[in-house]
Design goal:
The protein is α/β, with parallel strands linked by helices. Helices cover 29% and strands 24% of the residues. The protein has two domains: 67 residues, Beta Barrel (Ribosomal Protein L25, Chain P), CATH 2.40.240; 159 residues, Alpha/beta knot, CATH 3.40.1280.10.
C-alpha cells in the first residue's frame, strides 16, 4: 500500500494552494471541521485541489463560525489522472454512489455514464456523482479527482470514439475471451472499460460492440454479478493485467 498520511482530515478545495495564502472555509467545511471533527485553532489537515499537489495546512478561527485554512508546505507533488476511462450504465441511488466511489478508488481517470436499452436509471445526477468522487479521493489519498461527464447514449459514444483507446467490453454471454489473455497484451495502452446495466446488453448493442475494431470482449467468469460487483471485479482485472498495479 502506498505510504500516505491517514492520521488527520483531508479536504478537497477548488482554490489555488500556495504557502501562507489563507483560504476561507465554506460554511459546510467549517461545520464539518469544527463541529463534526471538533478541531480547534492550529489543528492540522491536508488540502488538495487536483492541480497544485497536496499541502499540509493549519486552521485559524475567526469568531465562532468563520474558519481559515492556512497552507504551510507541500507534502506531495501533483500526479496526473490515471489513463483509464470507466463507462457504465447508471444504477439507482446508493448503489451508484458505491460504484462511483469504488471506480475512483481503483484508478478510474474519467467517469462516463452511458444510457443503454435495458438500463434501470435513465437519469444521472452528475453533481451527486462528482461529490462521491471527491469523497473517495479525500479518503484514499488520491490527488487528481476524475472528471465526471454527462450521460450519453451508447451509439453516439461509440460513433465518436477515439480508436486509439481500446474499449474493454465485459460481455456476460458465454464465449467471451479469457480476461487475462485478452488484457495482458494491452499493458500500457490507453484503455476504457464498459460495464452494462442490470438487465444486460441488448442483442443489438452486443452486435454493435463486437463489430468494432477497437473493442475487446472479456468474460468475468461463470457467475452472474450485480453491476456494482462487476465494476469492482472488472477494474481489478484491468489494473492487475494491463494497468498500474504491477510494481505499485
Amino acid at each position: 500500500m502506498p505510504d500516505y498520511d491517514f492520521t488527520g482530515p483531508r479536504l478537497f478545495l477548488d482554490h489555488r494552494l500556495e504557502a501562507n495564502a489563507e483560504i476561507e472555509a465554506s460554511p459546510a467545511q467549517a461545520n464539518y471541521l469544527l463541529n463534526v471533527l471538533r478541531l480547534d485553532e492550529g489543528a492540522g489537515l491536508l488540502l488538495f485541489n487536483g492541480r497544485d499537489g497536496e499541502w499540509r495546512a493549519a486552521l485559524r478561527r475567526e469568531g465562532r463560525k468563520r474558519l481559515w485554512l492556512v497552507p504551510q508546505g507541500r507534502t506531495r507533488d501533483q500526479t496526473p489522472l490515471p489513463d483509464l476511462h470507466y463507462c457504465f450504465a447508471p444504477l439507482k441511488s446508493a448503489r451508484l454512489d458505491y460504484m462511483v466511489q469504488k471506480a475512483v478508488e481503483m484508478g478510474a481517470g474519467l467517469l462516463q455514464p452511458v444510457q443503454m436499452q435495458h438500463g434501470q436509471a435513465p437519469r444521472f445526477n452528475r453533481e451527486r456523482a462528482g461529490a462521491n468522487a471527491v469523497e473517495a479521493a479525500e479518503q484514499c489519498g488520491i490527488l487528481a479527482v476524475p472528471e465526471c461527464r454527462d450521460i450519453v447514449k451508447l451509439e453516439p459514444m461509440l460513433a465518436g470514439w477515439d480508436a486509439s483507446r481500446t474499449l474493454i467490453f465485459c460481455d456476460e454471454r458465454a464465449g467471451a475471451g479469457d480476461a487475462l489473455a485478452v488484457l495482458a497484451p494491452l499493458r500500457g495502452a490507453p484503455l476504457a472499460l464498459l460495464i452494462g446495466p442490470e438487465g444486460g446488453f441488448a442483442a443489438s448493442e452486443r452486435t454493435l460492440l463486437l463489430g468494432l475494431p477497437f473493442v475487446r470482449a472479456v468474460s468475468l467468469g461463470p457467475r452472474i454479478l450485480r453491476a456494482d460487483t462487476a465494476a469492482v471485479a472488472a477494474l481489478a482485472l484491468v489494473q492487475a493485467a494491463a494497468g498500474d498495479w504491477t510494481g505499485a
